[in-house]
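#struct-help
A.M.: can someone run this one for me? Single chain, 220 residues.
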Amino acid sequence: MFYKDEQNIYRARPLEAFEWLVHGFGTRWSDSFGKCRNLATLHQIHSSTVVDAEGRSGCLGEGDALVTNAPGMLVAVKTADCMPILIVDSRARAVAAVHAGWRGTAKNIAAKAIAEMEKKFSSRVEDLHVAIGPGIGKCCYEVGPEVVAQFHHYDYSLRNCAHAAHLDLAVSNRRQIEACGVTPDRIYAAGLCTKCNGEFHSYRRDKEQAGRMFSVVGIR
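D.P.: on it. Structure tokens below:
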């Protein structure tokens, strides 16, 4: 489903069916996305704020998801354990990049990005394809009671491992996206844990020394 190219960028094979689309999930060894002049980013604050890039580049203020339908534009999020999620509307040719940590996931950030695409671009859920990139896996994501309190009503999100609660961010976001009406066969997950795998930056593993990886989507 996902593969790594010669630039050390992971790509979702199903999204390559769209010739007009640019996308990729970076690693600690890839830096080409950060050099793009037509790239829009945000000062990420673990919120549910969605921003329409509207053809603008650079840092567009605070928020945790960007949407656009502007040709020649790329939108990106930066992560080091949080889930990067790329959403593609194959009919309207609109895209979104979402940064989903536990706080953003608890606030349903991916669903809010879909709602913004419906509002701004008349997107329909039956036309959406969603790629969930590398992020911390439930194998490594031990969480405390403040996080458990936010997810205790989701049986699929929490797993008890050696008397500690572990959160499955990828599954949590998948279920929220499915609840919007996106069918499971159009949701593609990398299944790569950033803490387990040294080719990714991980805040849990490297603390303040951790870098950040770009996950990018855009329209040629």
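A.M.: thanks! The domain at 2-136+174-219 is CATH 3.60.140.10 (CNF1/YfiH-like putative cysteine hydrolases).
D.P.: also worth noting: Residues 109-121 form the longest helix (13 residues).
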